[in-house]
Amino acid sequence: MSDAISLPPTVPPHGTGPAPLIDPFQRAISYLRISVTDRCDLRCAYCMSETMQFLPKRDLLSLEELDRLCGVFIARGVRKLRITGGEPLVRRDIMHLFRRLSRHLDSGALKELTLTTNGTQLARFAPELASLGVKRINVSLDTLDAAKFKDITRRGDLPVVLGGIEAARAAGMQVKINAVALRDVNGDEIPDMIAWAHGLGMDMTLIEVMPLGEIEADRTDQFLPLSVVRQRLESRYTLTNLPDRTGGPARYVRVEETGGRLGFITPLTHNFCESCNRVRLTCTGQLYLCLGQEDSADLRAVLRATGDDAVLARAVEEAISRKPKGHDFVIARQRPAAVPRHMSVTGG
Ligand code: SAM
Ligand code: SF4
């Protein structure tokens, strides 16, 4: 499969196109997260199994197809794209997709093009990403201890990731650190990680483990409720609630001692669905309407059956008309996982 890009037209700026995508609960869908690959150069224990079976490459949308589909979403009012995975920066020629998508930033149709990455390839790509208009990125990092990092990721090299973060900052991008809170693994380290991130002017967000995909470990052993983390943090820091909302599951506080912002993503202990503004596209072109639900739409079939973007737009509208009100995650001891898809398939 060639990842070479041929050029569909850009979309008209906001205000001149058709009506935005509104779901049955009157939520405007303005945010699309796109998993461009299910592959990764790491194997984080909470995310993947040691022996992941990856998809055959022919099943993936080509970069050209991804670009076309993004254009359709943007024409229907999507204002923010997040490229994720798997590890998005290990997909071959991924910068071609960023180069193509950046034209929507230039035209004003897109407000934000961003990325979630494990940081291993950032030293290589940060300057070009910044030059294409990627202003803010999320880097996932669960520990600052090199041995623990190798353990959690089953193979990662911490200095490489720290170098990537430095490269991104040097290129002028704002970096946010995402850390999954893992019981008996990094709980004790979180206060120091906050001091480190905030000391470098980076926001930090803590994430609860979600029951996505079968892995070797029992998730109840990994699960560390953020309510507990917050309580512990309050013995060292003064946390002031902030009104900031992103339409997502994060709640924010200001850490008064550092002056930095800290987010809590608690999908299991909090309900955040009422303000949900997002949908997720997998690397095979399945559109998932909710991270925690199985209902999806096969946009690859439509993409490959027609060159007519109006037909594709109708398939997108039909899917959005099925967006559920919310999810019902439960972390329970019984198998199988609450949602059989790994996060690396749906895109974190
Ligand atoms: N590889 C990139 C990375 O690690 O940032 C992007 C994809 S990764 C699936 C996106 C985010 O999902 C990461 O922050 C990761 O820690 C998080 N994640 C993966 N599996 C998870 C799970 N079961 N529960 C909670 N977060 C998870
Ligand atoms: Fe890879 Fe990201 Fe999953 Fe870790 S969390 S295995 S870096 S996709």
From TrEMBL:
InterPro entries: Aldolase_TIM (IPR013785), Elp3/MiaA/NifB-like_rSAM (IPR006638), MoaA (IPR013483), MoaA-like (IPR040064), MoaA_NifB_PqqE_Fe-S-bd_CS (IPR000385), MoaA_twitch (IPR010505), MoCo_biosynth_MoaA/MoaC (IPR050105), rSAM (IPR007197). Pathway: Cofactor biosynthesis; molybdopterin biosynthesis. It is an enzyme of class 4 (lyase). [4Fe-4S] cluster 1 binds at residues 40, 44, 47. [4Fe-4S] cluster 2 binds at residues 273, 276, 290. It comes from the Bacteria. Residues 24-249 form the Radical SAM core domain. Binds 2 [4Fe-4S] clusters. Binds 1 [4Fe-4S] cluster coordinated with 3 cysteines and an exchangeable S-adenosyl-L-methionine and 1 [4Fe-4S] cluster coordinated with 3 cysteines and the GTP-derived substrate. Keywords: 4Fe-4S, GTP-binding, Iron, Iron-sulfur, Lyase, Metal-binding, Molybdenum cofactor biosynthesis, Nucleotide-binding, S-adenosyl-L-methionine. Its EC number is 4.1.99.22. It catalyses: GTP + AH2 + S-adenosyl-L-methionine = (8S)-3',8-cyclo-7,8-dihydroguanosine 5'-triphosphate + 5'-deoxyadenosine + L-methionine + A + H(+). S-adenosyl-L-methionine binds at residues 46, 86, 140, 210. GTP binds at residues 33, 82, 116, 176, 278-280. Monomer and homodimer. Belongs to the radical SAM superfamily. MoaA family. Catalyzes the cyclization of GTP to (8S)-3',8-cyclo-7,8-dihydroguanosine 5'-triphosphate. This is GTP 3',8-cyclase. It comes from Methylobacterium persicinum.
